Amino acid sequence: xIRGLRTLAPARLTDVRSASGNVRIRKAAFSIALFSVxxxxxxxxxxxxxxxxxxxxxxxxxxxxxxxxxxxxxxxxCMVLFLTRPAGSGLVRFFRATPALAAFAxxxxxxxxxxxxxxxxxxxAVYVESYLAAAMLAVALEAGTDRQKRSLAWWIIGFxxxxxxxxIGESATQTHLIPLHLDDSVAKEFADDIxxxxxxxxxxHPLIAAGVTSMATFMLLRMRMxxxxxxxxxxxxxxxxxxxxxxxxxxxxxxxxxxxxxYELLRGILRRDLSMGFVGAVAAALVIxxxxxxxxxxxxxxxxxxxxxxxxDDSAQVRNLQWQVLNxxxxxxxxxxxxxxxxxxxxxxxxxxxxxxxxxxxWLLMFLNLGGIGFAVYVAALVLFIVHLGRTAxxxxxxxxxxxTIIIASTSNSLGRKSTDLFFTTACIVAMTGYPKTASAPAKxxxxxxxxxxxxxxxxxxLQPTQVKLLGSKT
Length: 475
What we know:
- There is one protein chain.
- Helices cover 71% and strands 0% of the residues.
- The chain is mostly helical and 475 residues long.
- The chain is globular and about 60 Å long.
């Protein structure tokens, strides 16, 4: 027996060291992934272009077509998958514990190679930047501790507030802090349309800024903090949505939040467990927010574009016109996708050949790029990823964030181009999980060990009369 214990002792010590090493690796991977999220805020596509990095234009060195945050997310992901001990356990756990996420990554890689085989290399970076980067970020961030995830939430809130402040300053001065990198014809068209000016803060486009602000709003509602601070930050998020001028983001966010609040009120009334703190927060929002928004819109430039474009403008007409491209598809296009050169010709044929006009629906763009066969795989992959994130959040606010994000993204071509939408969505969802549910189970009454043995025996017999009879008959 002593020999057996001597044999088992080193094995147990090795297991302890492996577990400790794995914890350090996961924490380090999270830190790298956190830095990648910070870089995504700090270095927009416009910033990279202004630094001389040819990030957005087609052609050139393929290595600079990926954002630095994508490389960092890949490093954090590889640390979790391949450096955990025993060797290969991280990769096995990835497929066993998160099959939806693993299937999403594999299917997106399939879509990328399928697109390359059918329509060429143009646009292949979209699958890495817009989709695969989000999967790699999820692997790295989900390995963190609750404390690390709460710090991620505060980093996101901090950058969003900073971006809102910059956007308000841009609207006041009619000048972008980060100069837009545009062609001459596009720049002239924007310069002529001063009334359409929108600040974009730290982001490369105001619609991206509005989408991320919407995500941060739902994440903010999940965070635990002082009620006054949360109310102030929530008001700042609404002001930001006005400033960025994203109609879809503002309306979707407000409608979803109002419906959720109404549902909670009704449920609380029916179940008679309505929280007075929640009632007070709703009452304060109804009293303070509407007048504040009216004053801001009436006396400042904030929200001017949204108010002045509350009709079917040129942007809305483009979104209706884009569907006419389906009339020019042949059977090969429908099955395998449309090559980029042919797509440009088709856009001219339907009147979308201008410098500032494009197909503004990512579902349509992905269908045109992949064709019916590849598009079916793409839709299945995206659904799996959304389901994985929803289960990861495990909270109604997480599903509200995801549904709102898909609705907002469907009004633009963001997910059909190189985009950060899913990257930031993943960061916000994982940050939510740093605030787990604290449903405490009823505590069991401790059994006293000081009572006499006879007392415990008599109590047990008193509770089981049938056994007493049986024992008596045997005696």
